[in-house]
Structure prediction request, 323 residues.
Amino acid sequence: MIVTLPLNTKVQALLQHERERIAPQKLELEVAGPDSLVLDPTASKIIRDPQNNLHLMIPNPRFANFIVAHELLHLQQEGRQSIKISSAHQDHSEIDQVLLTLGRIMLESLVHVPMRDYLVAADALDQPTQLAMRQYYTHNLLRDAPGTGETTTMMANSLQLFDARIFLTAAQVADTSWATDYPQAWAIADQLWQIATSKELRTNRDLRGTLLKLLKLFAEQQAGLPVEFSRDLLVTPVLSPRELKLRVEQLFQLWHDPAKQSDYLVISKKDDQATWRLSLSPKQQAKEAMLQRYQLSVAEFCQQYHFDYAGRDEPIFAAEEVK
Prediction:
């Protein structure tokens, strides 16, 4: 049901700005659940209809200011040249889907770090909202298994606790028993949080660099799983105007997956992270053809193969658009 909600003036201004930005597409707010004291920060979403219009689904109108501002800021960030994560493989195995889900959750939580200031400035992250979120996190944490703890439980809990530490105040977090009830997940979440908040996240370069640090830490903690985010996930590269003019060989290397005859991963030389997947027929893999690719400018390479990249020094959020 499309409704008019009592949004505060700052959230209304953000909504109006996003409507103007995506015009002629329409953006409508729709209440998708009853008023209650429960806030599930993962339940809201924006869906696209066949006419390419957007519908922001609000599961609980009581917390409409937070829900609308949160979703609009994600929409704004994702609509810019931004960091994205996808699978490096095409077979969509179960482990590939798990790693992709983990990577995307981690990226979304990391975006919450710079987003939090905008939510506070928009009066969309008040104490009742935070306390409702704390209750949600507490009820949805899974109990650690006896002993070392079951790996998937730890992974899920550590990501929830990481997100909770971003949104909640230190006092609100301290007034929980999370650290004693979920000691292993808490320890990982604390390390993730320390890395995520160790420097200001302002540009795409800041976001990508910190994300790779989080993925590396997370992989090191999951000893029982075949986790290699640098080869199993594709993370959008960040490039400056100068770098776009450089030759491919100066910034990237093409790594042939021995298990996939046609697949190459394009690896960033700066951080050894897979950025794109390139499928080539046997003829296209001839030595001369490969050398020609390496001599292309990075801009020509991206244009030829329709590869996305993010502007290295572009801001994650445009401050003048959301304040």
